[in-house]
Design brief:
heterodimer, A: two-stranded antiparallel ribbon, B: 357 residues, two-stranded antiparallel ribbon, 70% helix, globular
């Protein structure tokens, strides 16, 4: 029973990170109908910037986190302004390939700057844990879960109550109509990219105590987060979060229960098998917000 | 400028536009046939690779360029083809049996994946093929009793009727296969089947309205595409001598996609341009490395960096690829003082495709 809770906790923590990256996918998709395959790599870059600020420049943890999030938000803005804005109106496939290209460039640049060795940081809460009966709760896991809950509530409040959040919702529903009622669609799209990059950075920072960062971390994690977004129904923010939890739990539990039985690593493929089943059985996801276009 | 006077309807779908084009292809064939006499083994093996990537690219071009279905996992078919072929050879099956059976297995897998494709389009399909490729990669890696796992799998050298092929003979074999594949695919594409592919690409709804069976057409496109990728895989197995799971990773799938994009989507000659480009690029990067100062030139990430950058630049500035650029250059000279840039202006679509509100 203790193992079960232990696994549950680590699965939820893992799932939260997937969910946060998935939220970035969904944000950009909703605002622009572009699929950003470089989302995982943006997360990786954010993690590396934090590592540099803390390990090499010896900044305070919280200051470094705030600065890294700000820098990556600007990076998201720049990406949109320089590359993706030119792709508006092109086929979704072309946009997808551009983001794949961006991912290639980001991974190799990160490899050139920071090398290919896995790196991590010492956080104020590294190696600490709660003792809760027989269950040990590593604080790193708890921090991930708490931060995700806080971030999700903030995002919810932002979309529900702020003027800009409502403008973003309107743009996501119909760009032309949003433009007619006086919303600056360009600004909204740019803001979605900045927000997605910032959230991905937070995911990267939260991931750091759990796993170390290396240039390719974003690729694999990005695909899993993508799976999370699809499981949750592409285009739904709560769906993305729940999809992330499903993927995270599935991975942790197959790793513990199935891998030992079978003798080789099923957990690595469990995400993809889950994704394929989901795509075949219910392509619209658990919380369908997309429907086939009616003619 | 040459005008083609069409005197019957068959001229619309002829393989060659006119006698001049036929002559140019004949000249090209003679040139490629005579090339091994002048060049060394390095050029020969690079050209063999160009032929092999062209075969795989032709498969992907049918899918992406002509049917409009995106596959991010074509390396899986290469991998299945290569491993099936190598394992069958190892069991003593002659190549004449093992190559077709590898192709058959690939096309069956292709149809299975396309069953998923029938329910989804665009990005969902891309992700489904990616998931499929990831599963295949993990299976090949972990099923080491059959595939050798990460230790690699040795491929028997190519031989026909007990006569072992040297690299020049293998060059000619690959050239022959490529020529047959190109003729076959061009014939397929001008036949009703191929035009059904194009109709599905341009609009599924109007294709259905003209009586095209979407299910069958997509499944067929996947089957043909996977079979060609499998064929390229079997021949690559010979060329590489050893098979490793990492040779068929997601990066390979993306490189194949880059090949068809850089070559030019929707053009069979683009496949060849793309294959030449992708084979020359590593050599080109190696040359550039020597010019650069050591601190930049010795960085290992230079190759993926340039791949990514070139892909982005092509998509933004020349989405029709090399073949599109070649068409523009030709038009410029044939209409010399009258060429207008806007002839090729891209049509942007702001239609939201998947959502209704």
């Amino acid at each position: 029973m203790e193992t079960f809770f232990q696994l549950l906790l680590s699965g939820i923590a893992q799932g939260c990170v997937y969910g946060l990256v998935a939220i970035g996918f969904v944000l950009i998709y909703k605002a622009t109908e572009m699929v950003n395959f470089a989302q995982g790599d943006i997360m990786m870059l954010g993690a590396f910037i934090t590592i540099t600020l803390i390990n090499h420049l010896h900044w305070n943890y919280f200051l470094a986190v705030v600065i890294a999030i700000g820098v990556m938000g600007l990076f998201g803005l720049a990406l949109e302004r320089l590359l993706l804005r030119r792709m508006i109106g092109e086929s979704p496939f072309a946009v997808l390939m551009v983001t794949i290209g961006i991912g290639f460039v980001m991974r190799s640049v990160a490899g050139m700057i920071w090398g290919h060795n896995p790196r991590s940081i010492v956080t104020p809460y590294t190696d600490q844990s709660f003792q809760f009966g027989a269950v040990v709760l590593p604080i790193a896991d708890v921090v991930v879960i708490v931060a995700t809950v806080v971030l999700c509530s903030l995002t919810f409040l932002f979309f529900r109550y702020t003027r800009f959040g409502i403008a973003m919702q309107a743009t996501s529903q119909n760009q032309l109509a949003a433009n007619y009622v006086g919303i600056s669609v360009k600004r909204v799209v740019a803001a979605s990219w900045a927000l997605a990059a910032a959230i991905a950075t937070i995911a990267g920072i939260l991931l750091l105590p759990l796993k170390s960062a290396y240039p390719e971390v974003g690729l694999i994690l990005g695909i899993k987060a993508f799976a999370a977004a699809i499981v949750g129904g592409f285009g739904s923010l709560p769906g993305a979060m729940i999809g992330g939890l499903v993927i995270g739990l599935a991975e942790v539990f197959t790793k513990f229960w199935v891998d030992a039985e079978v003798g080789f690593s099923v957990s690595e493929t469990s995400v993809y098998i889950l994704l394929l089943i989901m795509l075949i059985v219910r392509p619209s996801g658990l919380f369908a917000s997309l429907q086939k276009k009616k003619v | 400028m040459r005008f083609v006077l069409k005197t019957n309807y068959h001229r619309d779908v002829d393989l060659f536009r006119d006698k001049f084009q036929f002559c140019w292809f004949a000249v090209l064939l003679v040139f490629v046939l005579s090339l091994p006499m002048f060049t060394g083994t390095y050029v020969e093996s690079q050209l063999t690779l160009v032929f092999l990537w062209s075969i795989a690219g032709a498969g992907l071009m049918i899918l992406v360029g002509y049917t409009g279905l995106i596959s991010l996992g074509h390396a899986a078919f290469l991998s299945v083809g290569a491993y099936t072929h190598a394992i069958l050879l190892d069991l003593g099956v002659p190549p004449f049996v093992s190559i077709p059976s590898a192709m058959l297995l690939c096309s069956v897998l292709g149809v299975v994946v396309s069953i998923a494709a029938l329910r989804m389009t665009g990005i969902y399909l891309a992700i489904a093929t990616l998931a499929f490729a990831m599963i295949v990669e993990k299976v090949v890696k972990n099923w080491s009793s059959v595939t050798g796992g990460n230790a690699g799998f040795k491929v028997a050298p190519p031989e026909i009727f007990g006569w072992e092929l040297n690299s020049t003979a293998y060059y000619y074999l690959c050239l022959l296969v490529l020529t047959l594949v190109m003729l076959g695919v061009s014939n397929l594409l001008r036949a009703p089947t191929g035009r059904a592919f194009i109709a599905v690409r341009d609009s599924e709804i109007s294709a259905q309205a003209t009586g095209i069976n979407l299910v069958k057409t997509k499944a067929l496109a996947f089957a043909v595409s996977a079979a060609l990728a499998g064929l390229a895989g079997t021949l690559l197995a010979y060329q590489w001598h050893y098979l490793f799971p990492d040779s068929f990773s997601m990066i390979t799938s993306i490189k194949l996609l880059m090949l068809v994009i850089i070559g030019g989507l929707g053009s069979m000659s683009g496949v060849i341009f793309g294959a030449i480009f992708m084979t020359l690029l590593p050599d080109g990067i190696a040359t550039v490395r020597e010019w650069l100062p050591d601190s930049i030139g010795n960085l290992p990430g230079l190759e993926p960096f340039s791949f990514g950058l070139i892909l982005i630049l092509f998509l933004i500035f020349e989405p029709r690829g090399i073949s599109g650029r070649w068409q523009k250059i030709r038009l410029f000279f044939s209409q010399f003082p009258l060429y207008r840039n806007r002839t090729f202006r891209r049509q942007k679509s702001f239609l939201r495709t998947e959502r209704v509100h």
